[in-house]
Amino acid sequence: MPNSTNQYLKPLTTKINSNGNLEIGGCDLGDLANKYGTPLYVIDELTLRSICRDYKKAFESYEKVNMMYASKALCSLATSAIISSEGFGFDVVSGGEIYTVYKAGADMKKVMFNGNNKSADELLLALDLGVGRYSADNFFELSLLNELAKSKNKTADILLRITPGIECHTHEYIQTGHLDSKFGFDLTQIDEAVELILSEYTNLRLHGLHAHIGSQIFETKVFEDEIDILIKELARLDEKFGLKLNEINIGGGLGVKYIESDCPPSTYEIADVIISSLKNSVQKYGIEPPAIFLEPGRSIISTAGVTLYTIGSSKQVPKGRKYIAVDGGMADNARPAMYRAEYTAQIANKPDAANLQNVTIGGRFCESGDILINSIDLPEVDEGDILCVFNTGAYNYSMASNYNRVEKSAMVLVNNSQSDIIVNRESLDDLISHDVIPNRLKLNA
Ligand code: LLP
Predict the structure, then answer these.
(1) Exposed e or buried b for every residue in 72-101, given b needs 16+ CB within 10 A?
(2) Mean pLDDT across the chain, nearest whole number?
(3) Do domains 34-39+303-431 and 45-301 have the same CATH topology?
(4) For residues 295 and 212, is the Cβ–Cβ distance under 8 A?
(5) ∠ at Cα 426 (421, 429), nearest 5°?
(6) CA 325, CA 289: separation in Å to the nearest integer?
(7) How many angstroms is it from 93 CA to the middle of ligand 1?
(8) Is any ligand 1 atom within 6 A of the Cβ of residue 335?
(9) Is 251 in the pocket of ligand 1 (CB under 6 A)?
(10) What are the residue boundaries of the structural domains of the chain, listed by start?
(11) What CATH number has the domain spanning 34-39+303-431?
C-alpha cells in the first residue's frame, strides 16, 4: 500500500538548498525568519494538499464519503480556503470556527457543528449561516436546538453523538460497555433521545449517529469495532422505530509521526479497514450501507507545519544538562507542557553539521515546565541560529495563548518559492486592544 503524507516527519518539500540551509516550499527558512521574525509558524501548501488528496484517493472506492477537516487542529482563513478547495467540509466546535470557515468561503452545507455545550448564540449563528449538520450531544441541546430552529422556522439536520464504549489514545485502547465521558449519549440513552425527536422535537431531522474514539491513533482495529457498534445501532433503531438512518460520522483520530519511532498507519490502511468493516457490518446486520463522514484534524495539518525559533541564551548546568533557550515555547506550542508531547528539530542554517551534543530546548516563558524538547542531539549552536521544530501544524497555533503577555506568532504559507503571510504577528497594541481602564483609574487623566 502506498505511503500517505501523515507518515512523514517533515513537510514533503523539505530539503537542503544550494546555500546549505533548510528550505520548505522552495523558501529558505533563514530568509523566512529574517523577513517575518520568529517564532514563526510555516505551513507548506503542497503537503497540506497532498494529505487531503491521500484521504480522497484512499476512500474513492466508497461512494458515499464526506470528508471534513476538524478545524480545532488549526483554524485560519487561508488554511480553511485551501482545505475547502480540496472539496472538504469542516467539523467546527465554536462560533469562532463557524465564522472563520464561512468567511473563508466554505460550503456551509458541508459543515458539521460538534461540541458538548454549544451556546444559544453559537447555534443561532449556525442556523443563520446554514450549517449542514449538527452533532447533537445531549438532552439539553436537543431541546435548545429544537426551540431555536423553530424560532427561525427552520429544521436542523442532526446526528446523535454517542459514546460507543471505545476509547483509544495512541497505545491505550479501552473497550467497555459504558464510557465515563462528557461527550455524547450513552448507548442506553439513545432510545429516549430518538423518542423525543420523533414525538416532540419536530424541528429536528435525525440522519444518523456520530462517534469519535480518540486522537493520535496508531492502530486500525479500533475503527472496525467502532463501525460495528454504529451499524449495529442503526439496525437496532430501524427495527425498533422503523427509522432508516443513513449516515454515520466516525470522527477523526489518525496519528502522525512526531518522532522517528512513531509509525502511524497510512490513510490507505485505515480506509481499507473502514470500508471493509462497513461492508461486513452492513451485511451482518442487514441494512443499506450508510454515507460516512470523517473528520480528521491532526493528520491533515500537522505534517504541513513547522515552527521557526531563534536561539538565544544557553546554559550549562554544572554536572547537569545543557539548556538552549528559544524565543517561543509553551505559549505557541502547549503540547510538550500539557501532554509531554515529543518533537524533533534541526538547526535550519546548519542542517548538515554533525550532532555533537545532547541538549534540552527550553522555552522563554516563566515556568520550569516550559521545555519544548527534553533531549535532542544537535550540532554546536550559536546565538541567532534558527531552530526548526517539525510537525507543529496541529494543536499548536490553535492552542496558543498570550501567557506572559507575549504577542502571538505570525504564520506564513509557502509554496513554489513564494511566501505569504496568513496570520499577522500580534503587536503590543493588539495585546492591550481589549483592555479597558475605567476613567476613575486613569493616571494623569
Ligand atoms: N472529531 C471530534 C469529535 C474530536 O473531538 C476531535 C478531536 C476530532 C474529530 C479530531 O481528531 P484528530 O483527527 O485531530 O485526532 N489537543 C490535543 C488533541 C485533542 C483532540 C480533541 N478532539 C493534542 O494536542 O494532542
Answers:
(1) bbbbbebbbebbbebebbbbbbbbebbebb
(2) 96
(3) no
(4) yes
(5) 140
(6) 54
(7) 11
(8) yes
(9) yes
(10) 34-39+303-431, 45-301
(11) 2.40.37.10
Reported residue count of the chain is: 445
Looking at the domain 45-301, which fold is it? TIM Barrel (3.20.20)
| CA 9 to centroid of ligand 1, rounded, Å | 19
**pLDDT tens per residue, range 20-70:** 999 999 999 999 999 999 999 999 999 999 999 999 999 999 999 999 999
Residue 156, by phi and psi: left (phi above 0), alpha (psi -120 to 50) or beta? beta
The single-letter code of the amino acid at 292 is I
Instruction: Tell me how crowded residue 420 is: count the other CB atoms within 10 A of its CB.
Output: 12
Using an 8 Å Cβ cutoff, are 39 and 332 in contact? Answer: yes
Identify whether 75 is a catalytic site residue. Answer: no
* CA dihedral (20, 26, 30, 34) positive or negative: positive
Ligand 1 within 6 A of 89 CB? Answer: no
Compute the distance between CA of residue 298 and CA of residue 270 in angstroms, rounded to an integer. Answer: 15
Single pTM value for the model: 0.97
Take residue 329 and report the three cell numbers written for it: 515555547
113 lines ligand 1 (CB under 6 A): no
User: In angstroms, what is the span from residue 100 Cα to ligand 1's centroid?
Assistant: 18
Mean pLDDT of all residues in 62-87: 98
- Checking if the pLDDT of 85 tops 80, the result is yes
Q: Which residues pair with 90 in a beta bridge?
A: 69, 111
